[in-house]
Amino acid sequence: MPELKDFISEKNFVTDRISTQVRIIAIGLLATTWSLLIGQVNIFINTLQCFRVHFILISIIAIIVLLFDFLQYECSYLNINKKIKLMNDKD
């Protein structure tokens, strides 16, 4: 049976590795699409107007991904805390 320190270690792993990568990608997409949408580069203005809806959709999806990342973090945190509490109650 796993010990308390094993659950704490898994909690740290779960909340760090995957979430960091997801945040970096989502924030990078938000920054890129935002800069393209508000930019005033003459070469790209006509092309960007055609794809404006697509860039907005990408931004919305990136925001949803960040919300799901937070939800995953919160659920994982609650789950591990529940297991820690159960283990403490057994002792």
Account of the 3D structure:
The chain is built from three helices and no strands. The protein is mostly helical and 91 residues long. The protein has one domain. α1 packs antiparallel against α3. It is rod-shaped, with a radius of gyration of 20 Å. The mean pLDDT is 84.
| Radius of gyration over all CA atoms, rounded | 20 Å
Number of domains: 1
Structural class of the helices, strands and pairings? Answer: mainly alpha
What would the average pLDDT be, to the nearest integer? 84
Q: Which percent band covers the strand fraction?
A: under 5%
Query: Major sheet, described briefly?
Result: none
Number of helices: 3
Low-confidence stretches: none
What is the β-strand count?
0
Shape: rod-shaped
Task: Give the fraction of residues assigned to helices.
Answer: over 70%
Element-by-element helix/strand order? HHH
Distance between the termini: 14 Å
Keywords:
91 residues, mainly alpha, 3 helices
Could you give a short description of this structure?
This protein is an all-alpha fold and 91 residues long. It has 3 helices and no strands.
Write the topology of this structure.
Layout: H1 4-38, H2 45-50, H3 52-90
